[in-house]
Amino acid sequence: MVYGESVRFVYLIPSILLLLGYITAAIVALTARNRYPRSATLGMAGFALMALGSLISLIMSLTSSAFISGGNYQLYSTISLVTSILTVLLQLCGVGLLLMALLKKESPDQGAPPAGLYGGQQYPAQYPGQQPQQWQQYPPQYPGQQYRGY
Hints:
Layout: H1 3-31, H2 37-70, H3 73-103, H4 108-111
Helix pairs in contact: 1-2, 2-3
């Protein structure tokens, strides 16, 4: 490996880390689909689009030296323009989906935990045969006694 090629790969490290971050975020959003189905799906799609845009940009960076060394500058500039526009559109659509996921209001029944979360049983407010509890007054007052405020 020549010194110039090793320096070029050093510049690709941030792009690779960004791609891995987008993929990790999409997987995390995928795991949240049970609790927040709509928001997690939108978030997963947004991160997937951003990962795709980052991957296209990374591939273009890796193949640019082949185009330039071949001397076909016009083809390189056309492909570079198309991939840049595609990358920007994918990134913008991904950010839009992420904003929709963040600002999406879940319906009341969608964000609620499933019925019977604790062992599958619904516990009644009172057990059968139990009398309703009466709240005690503090301090207890008897007929004819007045509250002194101590």
